[in-house]
Every structure is written in C-alpha cells, then in structure tokens.
Automatic annotation (TrEMBL):
<dbReference type="GO" id="GO:0004674">
    <property type="term" value="F:protein serine/threonine kinase activity"/>
</dbReference>
<dbReference type="GO" id="GO:0005524">
    <property type="term" value="F:ATP binding"/>
</dbReference>
<dbReference type="InterPro" id="IPR000719">
    <property type="entry name" value="Prot_kinase_dom"/>
</dbReference>
<dbReference type="InterPro" id="IPR011009">
    <property type="entry name" value="Kinase-like_dom_sf"/>
</dbReference>
<dbReference type="Pfam" id="PF00069">
    <property type="entry name" value="Pkinase"/>
</dbReference>
<dbReference type="InterPro" id="IPR008271">
    <property type="entry name" value="Ser/Thr_kinase_AS"/>
</dbReference>
<dbReference type="InterPro" id="IPR051681">
    <property type="entry name" value="Ser/Thr_Kinases-Pseudokinases"/>
</dbReference>
<feature type="domain" description="Protein kinase">
    <location>
        <begin position="1"/>
        <end position="254"/>
    </location>
</feature>
<protein>
    <recommendedName>
        <fullName>Protein kinase domain-containing protein</fullName>
    </recommendedName>
</protein>
Length: 254
C-alpha cells in the first residue's frame, strides 16, 4: 500500500511514507487520515508525524526515524529483564497517551511498535485507529490473531479495553520472546496454512485459552498479563492501572 524512503527535510533526516501508484483513492485517503490522527498525539512513545503533504505533487507523510527495528525483533534478541521492563513501560505509556486522546489503536503488536536510536519504543501504524467520542463503542473485526480481544472477534461492541487485551499480548511477546500461541501451535508445520493459523488462534482466544507464561517472567508481570487477557472487558485493568503496576514491579526486573 505504501513505500517508505529516507529523506532530508529542513536539514533533518526522516522517513517519507508515500502511497503506491496503484492504491485506490479511498485507501489513500484512509492512509492520510490515519497519519493526521497519529500526528495529533505528541508523546515520546508515539512515533512522531512531522508533516502531512496530501495534496503535494509528491504526496507523502514525513515520520521521525526509528532505525532500530521493532519490538518483535527486539524480543528475539535475548534482552535482559531490565531492558524488557523499560520496553514494557514505554509501550504502556504510549498506549496511555492514545487513550488519553480517546484513541483506540486496534492493532497493537510488536511489529507496529518501532524503536528509535536510543531503543525507545514508538507506537505506529494507525491504519485501524479510531477516535471515540463520549460513550461511543466500536464494532468490526480487525487486528492480528493472538493480539485481538475476544469481543472484537465475536463482533460485539468494544472500546479502549480491547487495546488493553492487545497490550497483554505485546507484554507476553516481550517476556517470552515469542508470538502468542507460537509455543502452543506449530506454525512451521508444512500442512498449516495461514488461514488455519488465523482460525486456530481465534478459536483458542474465544474458548478462553491463553498462552502460558513460564517462570522466567517475574510473577507480577505474569499476573498483569493474565488480567489484561480477561475474557470480560470490564474486568481488565485500565491503561492507567497498567502503567502504575509496571512501574511498581521495577524491583522484580532489576
């Protein structure tokens, strides 16, 4: 849908995201709308949108650089407990910033959280993000298997608490260095097609089955992840509570 270039803008290196020539007008509009929503959130843990040039001769979105990959790659690199804690807190604070702006990301996962040159996590990819008003709820399935809340999968109404469920899966990814259900389901089987993987992950989620966290993950974090994964949205902690709990468990990681 888009191509990303390294460019120089007003003396500053940044990433330029531009739609491919074959992208429909509707999808192009959605891409720029998502960028403006992302631009509205100014926070150290949200990838900054420097400028949006929708009507320019070369339409593009200028983003701050995040040259050190994403959280999924980070989790595969055998990070220390201290680094995992720092990353978890940054991701939670980025999510908190979105919720304070009434934004539901709807696709939180390690691959959508990029790392700057100082290894600071930055929430990005707002393609599914929506800003809620008042007591409005959302409906409609989106997201990634293993990260998507059960109420989203079952086409019920949902709100910010769906992001908290997804955040639980990101924390799992950080702590276990694996994708949710990767240890429970052999994704590398030759007879397991992509559609099968989606169906199995969704089925397990709807049946109340969650990936197991081993003893290498400190108990306070195991408890928090399980609470984020509650099948009942109203029983999940708020994002403010998640941030408080991660800050409080610092000693367990250092």
């Amino acid at each position: 849908m888009s191509v990303v270039w390294l460019v120089l803008y007003q003396g500053m290196e940044c990433a330029a995201k531009t739609p491919k020539p074959n992208v429909s007008a509707k999808n192009k509009q959605l891409m720029f709308d998502a960028a403006r929503l992302q631009q509205s959130v100014r926070h150290p843990n949200v990838l900054g949108v420097i400028a949006v040039f929708e009507d320019a001769e070369w339409p593009c979105i200028l983003l701050e650089l995040a040259p050190c990959g994403h959280v999924r790659e980070f989790s595969k690199g055998s990070p220390s407990l201290k680094d995992k804690w720092n990353m978890a807190l940054g991701v939670a604070k980025g999510t908190q910033a979105l919720h304070q702006s009434s934004i539901v990301h709807r696709d939180l996962k390690g691959e959508n959280i990029f790392l700057d040159e100082n290894m600071v996590p930055k929430l990005a990819d707002f393609d599914f993000a929506v800003q809620l008003t008042g007591s409005c709820k959302l409906r409609g399935s989106c997201g990634t298997p293993g990260f998507t809340a059960p109420e989203v999968l079952s086409n019920h109404e949902y709100d910010h608490s769906a992001d908290v469920y997804s955040l639980g899966s990101v924390l799992y990814e950080l702590m276990q260095s694996s994708f949710p259900f990767e240890k429970e389901v052999d994704f590398n089987r030759n007879d397991l097609h992509h559609g099968d993987w989606i169906r199995i992950c969704d089925m397990l989620t709807l049946e109340g089955i969650r990936p197991a966290l081993d003893q290498t993950c400190p108990k306070p974090m195991r408890d928090l992840v399980r609470n984020c994964w509650s099948a009942r949205a109203h029983e999940r902690p708020t994002i403010d509570r998640v941030v408080i709990e991660i800050e409080a468990m610092r000693e367990a990681f250092f």
